[in-house]
TrEMBL record:
Family under the similarity heading: Belongs to the AB hydrolase superfamily. Epoxide hydrolase family.
Ranges for domain AB hydrolase-1: 9-217
Domain of life: Eukaryota
Keywords, sorted A to Z: Hydrolase
Provenance organism: Rhipicephalus sanguineus (Brown dog tick)
Name of the featured protein: AB hydrolase-1 domain-containing protein
Lineage start: Eukaryota, Metazoa, Ecdysozoa, Arthropoda, Chelicerata
Any one GO MF annotation of this record: epoxide hydrolase activity
A Pfam family of this chain: Abhydrolase_1
Keyword set includes Hydrolase: yes
Length: 266
């Protein structure tokens, strides 16, 4: 994405969230509450901020825009969710509850760290096999083999042990920031109805569905995702390309065909 946007004269800021990668790792789980995380993405003198986030990054984006709508020009989220949209689907879908079981398991002290290190950090082979090269997976294992690295990431989940209602305390309203949602229907962690539930909290929004895209869409369909980001960020337009089928990841179960509607109703 950085290479794609640089010719357009944009200033692209890609912060590593606290506890992730080689960034600082605050020691206490309460340091990872959403009110603290939003401080990490607060812009410095941005005139036309376009917020782009995937997964946890998109969740932070929804919360940040809720409180700082005047600072954001447009927002793009990739397989992510507004807190209330996720709660709505979690309450109505047994499948979503099963997909989200790990968020509770990760709140337990110590055991998750021990589990992730088994068989040379095989946990990362499992979650990254469909989006990363062997070299990238090995690099990820190296980063998270450093002292305290795994605990830093798990603190995002353990923060709920200190305030289980942290997302319910925000003053939600209908967000006026134009938003593009890109959604993979073969996500292993999120069910497709969340995409439409997100729109209930947005005044102006559109969804690009990828019926055969996986959780790591920005890696699996990098060209398609980058093109949408650039087009929407600069013009606010969305151009669907239903003929694009080649995935950047050589796996037959994934493709990058796009659609304005989900492939099936839930």
């Amino acid at each position: 994405m950085l290479a794609k946007t640089s010719p357009f004269g944009s200033c692209v800021v890609v912060p590593d969230l606290r506890g992730c990668g080689n960034t600082s790792r605050p020691p206490h789980p309460s340091d990872y509450l959403i009110t603290n995380l939003m401080e990490d993405v607060h812009p410095n003198n941005a005139r036309r901020l376009v917020f782009v986030g995937h997964g946890l990054g998109g969740l932070i984006g929804f919360c940040f825009v809720t409180l700082h709508e005047d600072l954001v020009y447009r927002m793009i989220v990739i397989n992510s969710y507004h807190p209330l949209a996720f709660v709505k689907q979690l309450r109505r879908s047994l499948i979503q509850m099963m997909m989200s079981w790990y968020t509770v398991a990760f709140r337990v002290p110590s055991l998750p760290e021990q589990y992730m290190t088994i068989k040379d950090f095989a946990f990362f082979d499992y979650i990254l096999w469909d989006s990363s090269t062997e070299e990238e997976v090995n690099a990820t294992k190296y980063v998270y083999s450093q002292p305290g690295a795994l605990t830093g990431v798990l603190s995002y989940y353990r923060a709920f042990n200190h305030d289980s209602e942290q997302f319910m305390k925000l003053k939600y309203h209908k967000i006026r920031v134009p938003t593009l949602i890109m959604w993979s229907e073969k996500d292993r962690y999120l069910t497709t109805p969340i995409a439409e539930f997100n729109r209930e909290h947005l005044k102006t929004s559109s969804v690009v569905y990828y019926p055969k895209g996986g959780h790591w869409l920005m890696r699996q369909c990098a060209d398609s995702v980058n093109n949408h980001i650039i087009e929407f960020a600069y013009t606010g337009n969305i151009i669907y390309n239903e003929s694009v089928t080649q995935s950047q990841v050589p796996l037959t179960e994934y493709s990058c065909a796009e659609s304005p509607k989900p492939s099936k109703k839930s």
